Amino acid sequence: MQLLCLPAGQLFGYVLTGKFKSPSGEWKHACSYLAEYELFVMTEGVLYLSYNHVDFTVKSGEYLLLPPQNAFRQGFRPAGSSFYWLHFTTALGDLPTAFDPEHFTPPLRKMLHAPSDGDNSQDGAGGCPDEAAPGYGQK
Q1: Distance between CA atoms of residues 136 and 2, nearest Å
Q2: pLDDT tens across 5-32, in order?
């Protein structure tokens, strides 16, 4: 798994959005080029999608965010599914940071403690790491 950390105050450029419902359980995502970010939010079924030589299985209640990598995406297995999709862009200087999830504690999992004797520290790490993980965009 790779996590993306979007910079605080980031502005996004809206491209296109919609809701898709497959016509049958034999539907597969067509092969198409991805030049911007795409977010899938699954509402029913399963989406089997291959992108940049990685196969993703996304189930109802899950989401998938694909970064632009000048690559094609396509279904690798038929299935019935329904999902919201959103295409968006970012300014070239404001690209998200990718990092190894083993070196990150999401802010919702932070454990706070009451300061004692002037100690204002927090237990656990949080937020984005200072540096991107090597090989961003590569699997």
Answers
A1: 9
A2: 666 677 888 999 999 999 999 999 999 9
